[in-house]
Design brief:
It holds the Pfam family MarR_2. It comes from Pantoea endophytica. InterPro entries: HTH-type_Bedaq_tolerance, HTH_MarR-typ, WH-like_DNA-bd_sf, WH_DNA-bd_sf. This protein is mainly alpha-helical. The protein contains six helices and three strands; from the N terminus they run H-H-E-H-H-E-E-H-H. The radius of gyration is 19 Å and the shape is elongated.
Length: about 140
């Protein structure tokens, strides 16, 4: 059984590797995250959110989120709709164009990762990667 110090070191190494992997994939595929992209990604996973909910989830001020939504709306990436729970309130939803852009960026990143796996990993490494992914699933 590992000591607390070993566990802490393992956790830090995992954090560094995941951060490095994410940055490397984004830079290599030119799909770098921005406040707009992070907002679109949240909407994709939550379907419809108010500006207040988006601000809370992103950890930004309401006014900052309002500006981001205005920019996204000007690009036809989000739409405002009446809330199903409260007809006086509005929620923000993704446009079809935004859904397509998110899907394309995700596919680009997956393709890059698949190419790197094919170029650099032998079967044993792939098996190890599968085991590592299983462990990550347990953590989540």
């Amino acid at each position: 059984m590992s000591t607390e110090n070993e566990t802490q070191q393992l956790a830090e190494e995992l954090r560094k590797m995941v951060s490095h992997l994410v940055r490397n994939v984004r830079v290599s595929t030119a799909t770098v995250r921005t406040s707009q992209y992070e907002t679109l990604d949240l909407l994709d996973s939550h379907d419809a959110l108010s500006i207040a909910d988006l601000a809370r989830l992103r950890g930004v001020k309401h006014q900052s989120m309002r500006l981001v939504i205005n920019e996204l709306e000007a690009q036809d990436l989000v739409l405002r709709q009446k809330s199903a729970q409260d007809a006086r309130a509005q929620v923000i939803v993704l446009s079809d164009q935004a859904r397509a852009a998110l899907a394309a960026a995700r596919q680009q990143r997956a393709d890059w990762l698949a190419a790197r796996i094919n170029e650099t990993l032998d079967q044993q490494d792939r098996d190890d990667l599968q085991k590592g992914l299983a462990a990550l699933r347990k953590l989540l």
